[in-house]
Design brief:
The complex is a heterodimer of chains A (about 325) and B (about 325).
Chain A: H1 3-49, H2 56-81, H3 89-107, H4 109-132, H5 138-157, H6 167-170, E1 176-177, E2 180-181, H7 182-200, H8 202-212, H9 214-219, H10 224-250, H11 261-271, H12 283-302, H13 307-329
Helix pairs in contact in A: 1-12, 2-7, 2-8, 2-10, 2-11, 2-12, 3-4, 3-5, 3-10, 4-10, 7-8, 7-10, 8-10, 11-12, 11-13
Chain B: H1 2-18, E1 29-34, H2 39-56, E2 59-64, H3 71-83, E3 88-91, H4 100-108, E4 113-116, E5 125-128, H5 131-145, E6 150-157, H6 162-174, E7 180-187, H7 192-205, E8 211-214, H8 217-229, E9 237-241, H9 245-252, E10 258-261, H10 264-279, E11 288-290, E12 294-296
Parallel strand pairs in B: 1-2, 1-3, 3-4, 4-5, 5-11, 6-7, 6-8, 8-9, 9-10
Antiparallel strand pairs in B: 10-12
Helix pairs in contact in B: 2-10, 5-6, 7-8
Classes of the chains: A mainly alpha (about 325), B alpha/beta (about 325).
Chain lengths: ~325, ~325
Amino acid sequence: MSAQDRVDMAKPEVTTRDHGAGVGRSLLWLQNAGLPIALVVLVLFFSIRSDLFLTVQNLRNVGLQAAALAAVSCGQTIVILTSGLDLSVGATVALVSVVSALAINHFGMAAGILCGIMTGAVIGVINGILITWFRVFPFIATLAMMSVLSGLALSISGGTPITGLPPEFTSLAYTRVGGVPLPLIVSVTVLVLVFLFLHYLRLGRHMYAVGGNRQAAILSGLNVSAITVTAYAMCSLCAAVGAIILSARVGSGQPSLGGSLPLESVAAVVLGGVSLFGGRGSIFQVAVGVAFVSILSNGLNLLNVSSYTQMMIVGGTLIVAVTFDQRFVARS
Amino acid sequence: MIMTKFCQTAAVLTIALFAGAGHTIAAEKLGASLPLTQGPFFTAQIYGMTEEAKKLGYDLVVLDAGGYGKVDKQVSDVENLLAQKVKAVLLNPADPTSFVGVLNDAKSNHVPVVGAGMPFAGTDGSVSPSHCEIGKALAEGAKALLPNGGQLAALVGPAAGFWANERWRCFKEQIANTKIQIVAEQASEPDAAVGLSIATDILQRFPTVQVLYGADDTVGVGAARAVQANSLCGKVKVLTAVLGDTTEELMKAGCMDYVVALQVVEVGRRSVDMADKLIKGGKLEAKDVVIPVVPVTPKNLSSIDLSTIRPPAH
C-alpha cells in the first residue's frame, strides 16, 4: 500500500468524525434551545388564537398557578440529577398541608410553616434512607411512600380539610409585590437558591457526579449514600414549600392536595432537558419546562379545549420529550 | 441531517398551527367549573347547563378539575374562567372552603358566582339539593328498608371527598335515634370495581348485614354487583343516590332497592337560569333554590319522569 493510498483511506474517517461531532453539536444546541423555541412558538400561538392570553390578569394567573409546580420541580430536578425519581412529592404536599394547617391553628403561622417544612425534610430523609441503606429502587420506594403519606394525611385530618386558618395565611397566596404574586416570588427564590447550590457548592456538583457515573463517584471517594439522602431531603423540602403555597391558595389543609404534581413535575423536568439517566441538566431549563407546562394548560383552557384532550396533549408532550432524550441526546 | 429534518418538521408544524389562526370573537360566555366531567351525575349536570345556556344564547365553557382531590386545580380553573371574562361562574366545588380568595376576586370583577350543586358561603346564589339533604334522604331510605332496625354497612365514597363526608354525616345524624346499627364503613374511590371488591369483603365479614349503603351510583353499583354475585339480591338490600342507567338496570333485576334520584339535569338548567338573572341584574326569587330529590323504588321506577334526572339515551 502506497503512502498516497493510506492518506486516501484515512480521509473518510476524518469526515465521519467531523460529521459525528457536527451532529453532537446540533443535538446539544437542540437540547438547549429546543424548548425555549417551542415555548416562544406556544406563546405566539396562544396570543394569536386568544386575545385574552396576553392580558395582565391571565399572565398573573399563569404565574400564580405555576408557583407550586416550580418549587416542586426544583426538588424533582435535584433527585433526577442523581438518577433517582421521587413519586411521593404529591403525597408529601398533602401531608405537609395537613400538618402545617393543624400547627398554624395551634401554634401560629410562623411555627406552623416551620413545622410543615420540617415534616418535608423528615420525609425526604426517610426516602433517602430507604433508597440507600435498604437498596429499594427509587421508583418503588417513593411509590410506596406515596401511599404511606396519603394514608397518614387522611388519618391525621380524619379525611376532612383542616379549616379555620387565619386570614393572614390565606392572603399570602393573593398578596402581590410590585404586581407580582408573592407565591411566584417565593418559587423564583427557591429556583435561584437551587441554581446556586448546584453550580457553586461542592455538594451540588457532587449531585451531578453521582448521577453521571455512580461507580466513578464511589471510586473518587464521594459519600454517595449521604449525597443521595441529601438530594431526597432537598426534594421533599421543595415539595413542602409547594405545599405551603397551595395550602394558602386553597385556604385550608387538604389531605388530597397535589395529586397531579408527580406527573407534572417529572414532565417539567424532562421537558427542561434534565436526563432521566441523571448527571445532566440545568435548573433554568427546568424553569422553562415549568413555564411550558403551565402555559400549555392555561392556553388550552382559554381555547376551551376539553379536559380529556388536554390530558392527551400533556401526556403526548411528555412522551415526545422522553423519546427525544432516550433516542438522541442520551445516545450522543 | 437530523438538525435539518428537525427544522423542516418544526417549520411545517408551525405553519400548520398558525394556519387559520385569528382572534376569537368574544361571545357572551358562562363558565362552569366542576370537579369532574364524567359519571352519571356530572354528565347530566353538564347536559342541563348546556341545553339551557344554548337556549338563552350563551357560550358555555366547562372546565374539569380532574377529580375531587384536585382542589388547587379547581381554584386555578375558576381563575382561568375569570381571565376569560365570563359573565358568570357556575361552581360545583370539590371543597367549598377552598374558594374564599378566588370568590373575592370574582366579586371585585363583578362576576356573579352560582353554587351549582350545593349552597356555600361567598356565592351569589345556589341551586341544589345539598349533600346534607341527600344524606338525610338516604337515611329515610334506610328507615324504609329497615323499618324494625337492623345491620347496615356503608361504602361512604372517597376519603376527603367533601360531598361523601357531608352525605355520610347527615345520614348518621338522621338515623341516630333508630335501631339501625352501622357495622362497617369504608371509604373508597368512586369506582364501581373498587366498590364491588369492598362490598364483597364486607359481605364475607358481616354475613348478617341487611343493607349496603353506597354514597353514589359508582360505589352503589359496585355494592349491588357484589350482592348479585353472591346471589343475595332481595336478601341484602342496596341503597344509593343518583339514578344512572346501570342503577336502573340493577333495580329492574331486583338487586338495587332504593335510590335517591337527584334531578341533576334540572339543577344544571336552573343554575344557568339563576346566572342569567344575576347577569341581567334581575331579582332572585330565592337565593338558595332547593331542587327536591326523588325517592325511587322498584314499585315506582316505571312512573318516574327521567327528563329532569338524566340526559336522553343516545
